[in-house]
């Protein structure tokens, strides 16, 4: 949703242009607005507003501004109080139209998850905006935000009504179209959604959301290759692509996704495409290739925090804790030692490697950097527990819960510790709290363990299977199932689940080595054999899927030079020799002058077995004569490549290298952009 603070600032900017244009009694309000427009200190802004309202408590404008600031600070009670009073004291002629006040209060209710009150205020804001001359520009956003609430409530019909209303104002409103498309996907109306998203593309082919949603539609329809095609376009057009979506779609056909991205790298040697290639290797658990390409990335673009951070993850996944820690340490050093994510990552590497003292030190830094985040308390507590210090562990679990009561995992670990201490009632209270909070079966869920500790093993396994079904990769899910079965004492089933985890790409050997969930099966011969077997089986993803290659379409745009003859001169390489050819739409063959042919032969660009018309070839003189047919092993135009092309040698020494229409079409679909003088080749 649109930032309401921005709305306020825009309205203020239109109302004020410096001090002195309103009554002197509004001085503190004017000052507050000026500070907000110039990113001033929020505390000072609030002090100005407080001063204003002490003198004029019925100043509706000041109350709106203060409410907006309170809303930004998530002080919802204060925001609502001021909004209510702003409505009570509202007078015509103020800074803010009345509809904006209801709009702001609706936003507050939405943030507070009070949908009924939010919808009521959106309705009022919409009706008032229709009557207000200044409201026309905001009607679109009010409708959009109201539709969002309807979508969250699964009231797709009402959401549709708002989107259609938006389209009445602008038939090419792609935001509204995407809203309708999203509702169609939710209703599984994939054919309708596809029809509308194609229409959306016609209005603006550069609108990234078009491809984001079309790739999801194709994915739902089971057309994975088409989904990946659109995923690549979406990545190309988006400034901030959602990698979790790319992973969910590309993960279903990694070799094809890799082939598509490789083709982009060939024509666009860009950092972002190379990063995506590495992501694909990581999604497929091919950490060896991922590391190799991170090394290349570092050589080409230099050291960087993202390279060190991400490469460290790969090293950790293959159990090379030493290199993982070395990389993440470099990352921390580049970030001046205050990068919370990097410090926590190193702490986890230490923990997974059994270096609990070092892990505790880093988790302590994490607590210092983010004292209201439960995660570092939870992980530090776990490390204390693993190192035998249960008292410190309990202190950390309690501290984590004090700062954030909405983190199920910390209730789970505290419950386990209570159980270990024989406090079953307290333990069960924590386990039930996990069940109350953890209601979505997805990767990262821990509800299954709470159910197990409560003696509800059948429900625990049922939940575990739901998690696996929801995870496209399933590797982590099967590993968790192995841990759960091991805790239940179902050892053979635990080993079988671990094998499935490995089959689906799981390779976190360092974690397995120190995971106490694995203790129950660790000494089993089957377990040891399994670890040895898969340590010797590194995953390799190759873009060698022939079906994928056949479907890959590369687009090459080549700048041309129009000659006086009406022909186009186009740069190319023949057998790696840079040349220029003339494109003649009326010609059907390839011709080359004897001068150029002989130059190529003498300099190694042609070989003796490339001479096909041997009756015209004189070994004695070493020359190629008119009428000789030669084979051009590779013609490259832009990123498009054509191999094994026959060319006829002509005597005219001034004759250009000529490619006819028929030959050129072997590259794929060929079009000419006369306006921009470009040759466009779409090649499979």
Describe it for me?
With 684 residues, this protein is α+β, with helices and mostly antiparallel strands. It has a domain at 553-683: Cathepsin D, subunit A, domain 1, CATH 2.40.70. Helix content is 61%, strand content 10%. The protein has 34 helices and 12 strands. The strands form 3 sheets. A 6-stranded mixed barrel has the order 3-4-10-5-9-8. A hairpin with a 2-residue loop joins β3 (568-574) and β4 (577-584). The chain is globular. The two termini are 41 Å apart.
Compact description:
Helix content is 61%, strand content 10%. With 684 residues, it is an alpha+beta fold.
Number of helices: 34
Shape: globular
End-to-end separation: 41 Å
* Low-pLDDT segments: 13-23, 614-622
> What is the CATH C level class of the domain at 553-683, in words?
Mainly Beta
Helix content: 55-70%
CATH homologous superfamily caption of the domain at 553-683:
Acid Proteases
* Quaternary structure type: single chain
- Please compute the radius of gyration using only Cα atoms: 33 Å
CATH architecture of the domain at 553-683: Beta Barrel
């Amino acid at each position: 949703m649109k930032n309401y603070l921005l709305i306020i600032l825009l309205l203020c900017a239109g109302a004020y242009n410096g001090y002195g244009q309103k009554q002197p009694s509004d001085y503190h309000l004017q000052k507050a607005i000026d500070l907000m427009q110039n990113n001033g200190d929020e505390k000072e802004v609030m002090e100005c507003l407080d001063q204003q309202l002490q003198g004029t408590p019925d100043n509706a404008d000041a109350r709106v501004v203060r409410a907006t600031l309170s809303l930004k600070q998530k002080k919802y009670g204060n925001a609502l109080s001021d909004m209510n009073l702003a409505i009570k004291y509202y007078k015509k002629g103020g800074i803010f139209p009345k509809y904006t006040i209801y709009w702001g209060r609706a936003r507050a209710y939405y943030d507070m998850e009070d949908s009924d009150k939010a919808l009521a205020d959106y309705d009022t804001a919409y009706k008032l905006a229709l009557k207000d001359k200044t409201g026309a520009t905001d009607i679109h956003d009010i409708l959009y935000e109201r539709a969002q609430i309807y979508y969250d409530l699964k009231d797709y019909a009402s959401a549709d009504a708002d989107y259609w209303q938006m389209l009445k104002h602008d038939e090419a409103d792609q935001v509204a179209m995407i809203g309708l498309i999203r509702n169609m996907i939710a209703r599984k109306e994939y054919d309708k959604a596809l029809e509308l998203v194609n229409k959306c593309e016609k209005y603006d082919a550069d609108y990234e959301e078009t491809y984001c949603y079309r790739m999801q539609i194709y994915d739902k329809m089971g057309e994975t290759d088409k989904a990946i095609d659109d995923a690549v376009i979406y990545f190309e057009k988006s400034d901030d692509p959602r990698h979790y979506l790319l992973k969910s779609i590309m993960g279903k056909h990694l070799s094809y996704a890799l082939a598509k991205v490789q083709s982009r790298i060939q024509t666009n040697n860009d950092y972002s495409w190379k990063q995506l290639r590495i992501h694909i290797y990581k999604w497929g658990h091919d950490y060896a290739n991922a590391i190799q390409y991170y090394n290349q990335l570092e050589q080409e673009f230099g050291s960087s925090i993202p390279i060190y951070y991400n490469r460290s993850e790969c090293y950790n996944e293959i159990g090379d804790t030493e290199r993982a820690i070395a990389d993440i340490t470099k990352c921390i050093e580049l970030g001046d030692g205050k990068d919370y994510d990097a410090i926590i990552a190193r702490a986890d590497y230490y923990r997974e490697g059994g270096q609990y003292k070092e892990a505790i030190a880093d988790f302590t830094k994490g607590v210092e950097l983010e004292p209201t985040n439960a995660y570092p308390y939870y992980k530090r507590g776990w490390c204390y527990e693993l190192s035998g210090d249960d008292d410190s562990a309990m202190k950390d679990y309690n501290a984590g819960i004090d700062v954030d009561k909405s983190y199920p995992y910390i209730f789970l670990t505290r419950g386990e510790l209570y159980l270990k201490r024989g406090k079953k009632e307290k333990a069960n209270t924590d386990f039930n709290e996990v069940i109350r909070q953890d209601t979505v079966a997805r990767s990262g869920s821990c509800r299954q363990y709470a159910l197990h500790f409560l003696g509800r093993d059948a429900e625990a396994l049922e939940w575990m299977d739901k998690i696996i079904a929801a995870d496209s990769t399933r590797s982590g899910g099967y590993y968790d199932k192995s841990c759960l079965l091991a805790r239940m004492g179902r050892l053979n089933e635990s080993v079988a689940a671990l094998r499935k985890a490995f089959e689906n790409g799981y390779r976190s050997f360092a974690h397995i080595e120190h995971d106490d969930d694995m203790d129950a099966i660790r000494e089993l011969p089957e377990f040891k054999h399994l670890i040895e077997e898969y340590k010797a089986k590194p995953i390799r993803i190759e873009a060698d899927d022939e079906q994928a290659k056949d479907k890959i379409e590369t687009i090459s745009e080549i700048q041309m030079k129009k000659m006086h003859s009406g022909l186009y001169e186009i740069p190319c390489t023949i057998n790696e020799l840079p040349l220029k050819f003339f494109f003649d739409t009326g010609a059907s063959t390839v011709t080359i002058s004897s001068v150029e042919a002989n130059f190529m032969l003498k300099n190694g660009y042609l070989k003796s077995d490339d001479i096909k018309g041997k009756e015209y070839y004189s070994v004695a003189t070493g020359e190629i004569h008119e009428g000789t047919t030669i084979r051009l092993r590779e013609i490259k135009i832009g990123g498009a490549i054509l191999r094994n092309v026959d060319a006829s040698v002509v005597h005219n020494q001034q004759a250009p290298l000529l490619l006819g229409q028929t030959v050129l079409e072997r590259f794929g679909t060929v079009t000419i952009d006369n306006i921009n003088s470009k040759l466009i080749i779409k090649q499979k």
